[in-house]
Design brief:
InterPro entries: Split_barrel_FMN-bd. The chain has one helix spanning about 55-64. It has about 60 residues and is an all-alpha fold.
Length: about 60
C-alpha cells in the first residue's frame, strides 16, 4: 500500500470508528502523545540584554 496523503484527528476520547470499519483489515487505535515544556530559548535576533521574562521562567518551572 502506498500512502499519498494522510491526516490525523486530535481528540481526548477513545477510538470512534464506524461499526462497518471494523470489518476492514486495517489497524485502528490510538497513539498517545505527551507534550512537555522545555527550557525557553531566546530569539537570536533579540537586542542585547533582553532577558527571559519572569513569567516565562515561572511557567517553565511549574511545568517541567
Amino acid at each position: 500500500m502506498t500512502i499519498e496523503t494522510a491526516s490525523a484527528k486530535v481528540r481526548d476520547v477513545g477510538v470512534n470508528d464506524e461499526p462497518e470499519d471494523y470489518n476492514l483489515p486495517i489497524w485502528a487505535g490510538l497513539m498517545p502523545l505527551k507534550q512537555i515544556v522545555l527550557p525557553p530559548i531566546s530569539d537570536k535576533n533579540l537586542k542585547e540584554g533582553i532577558q527571559v521574562p519572569n513569567h516565562v521562567i515561572e511557567y517553565y518551572n511549574m511545568h517541567k
